[in-house]
Design goal:
The chain has helices spanning about 1-15, 65-70, 90, 110-115, 135-140, 155-170, 170-180, 185-190, 205-215, 235-240, 245-250, 275-280, 295-305, 345-365, and strands spanning about 35-40, 75-80, 100, 120-125, 145, 200-205, 220-225, 240-245, 255-260, 285, 310-315, 335, 370-375, 380. It is α/β, with parallel strands linked by helices and about 375 residues long. α6 (about 155-170) packs across α9.
Length: about 375
């Protein structure tokens, strides 16, 4: 079967390279017959779980696949308890076969956890973005990592557009005035602008970045993008976006910067104090990609000094964000918990995608190629 071939190839590759993890590869990695132990890690909905029958992305909803899995004889354990040596997830690491997690409440799959997981074969992300997994360790161990590519790209792009408008129009102070009984138009208007005519640059123009550019075009903005590769010429023409090969040359041109790049070894801490200083004074930044792309304290300091006039997003590091995270308290922020990609519509899409991949896994069939993040010991191009 396909999974067996992939596992065999990975074992040979790692063993020949002398990888220190190769000693862990005595386990049987293919989708062998029989009952599987599947663990899902999701956020808990508590009293909100029963308010929407399509709320499947939480612990209580369990992606809507419990009955299907258990009817086939598989064991399905779902928890939100994912941190520390005594957490519920840790109890199941040694004998689980499949681990499902989401970017919104990520189970951090470290090299240490991978080494302990002697039966682990498959890591699935319910959503997009698998940086909560040590992908190099997963590749070395011959594991398959996959996500539901495209499942929530519209959701995230719409949210980015909303946050851009919230920051540009200085919406939040007005909302707080209305809620607290105040009325001071000047306190809002002195830094409220139109989006039309502003220069917006996206750092990354993959699926989400392209959707954002398409949605910004009717606002008559000057659109720029930086990426590893240029977009298709037809899409460039359609959006009117201009390619900027040099990120540091693009940043001073932008009134608004949107982060749309995956978190990799190359992008971790990409926006440190020095790079933020290259942005235009008074820049607005929206980041729905990953919190660790930014130097958290550098962002907070730049917001306090006014170099960043507003910062909005829903991604933090770690997640859930600690109560003392500096972004909670910095001025002119439009932050929320990680919610942009977990709308009800997105949940239904990524739940269906997870079910499809599990079904293929049980049958030993290949996944859609775009879903693979680690396959046969190799990382997908965006993580290389």
């Amino acid at each position: 079967m396909a999974m067996k071939r992939a596992a065999t190839s990975a074992i040979k590759s790692v063993a020949s390279s002398g990888n220190p993890l190769s000693s862990t590869l005595t386990r049987d990695l293919h989708a062998s017959p029989g009952s599987k132990k599947i663990v899902g890690v999701f956020y808990k909905a508590n009293e909100y779980a029963s308010l929407n029958p399509n709320f499947v992305g939480c612990v209580e909803g369990a992606l809507g696949i419990r009955e299907w899995l258990e009817s086939q004889g598989h064991q399905y354990i779902v928890t939100d308890d994912k941190e520390g040596p005594d957490c519920e997830l840790e109890k199941h690491i040694p004998d689980l076969h499949v681990l499902i997690s989401t970017p919104f409440h990520p189970a951090y799959v470290t090299a240490e956890r991978i080494k302990k997981a002697k039966n682990l074969q498959l890591l699935l992300t319910a959503g997009i973005g698998s940086d909560h997994i040590d992908l190099n360790a997963a590749a070395a161990a011959g594991l398959t990592v996959a996500e539901v590519t495209g499942s929530n790209v519209v959701s995230v792009a719409e949210d980015e557009l909303m946050r851009i408008l919230i920051l540009v129009r200085n919406f939040l102070p007005g909302y707080h005035q209305a809620s607290s009984g105040d009325w001071n138009v000047a306190a809002i208007a002195h830094r409220a602008y139109d989006l039309e005519g502003k220069t917006v640059g996206t750092v990354g123009a993959g699926r989400i970045g392209r959707l954002l550019l398409q949605r910004l075009k009717p606002f008559n903005c000057n659109l720029l993008y930086h990426d590893r590769v240029k977009m298709d010429p037809e899409l460039e023409k359609q959006t009117g976006a201009k390619f900027e090969e040099d990120l540091d040359a693009m940043l001073p041109k932008c009134d608004i910067v949107v982060i749309n790049t995956p978190l990799t070894d190359k992008t971790r801490g990409l926006f440190d104090k020095e790079r933020i200083a290259k942005c235009k004074k008074g820049v607005l930044i929206v980041n729905n990609a990953r919190g660790a792309i930014m130097d958290a304290q550098a962002v907070a300091d730049a917001c306090s000094s006014g170099h960043i006039a507003g910062y909005g997003g829903d991604v933090w590091y770690p997640q859930p964000a600690p109560k003392d995270h500096p972004w909670r308290y910095m001025p002119n922020q439009a932050m929320t918990p990680h919610i942009s990609g977990t709308t009800i519509d997105a949940q239904l899409r990524y739940a269906a995608g997870v079910k499809d991949m599990l079904d293929r896994y049980f049958k030993g069939e290949e996944f859609p190629p775009q879903h693979y993040i680690v396959k046969e010991g190799k990382l997908a191009s965006q993580y290389q």
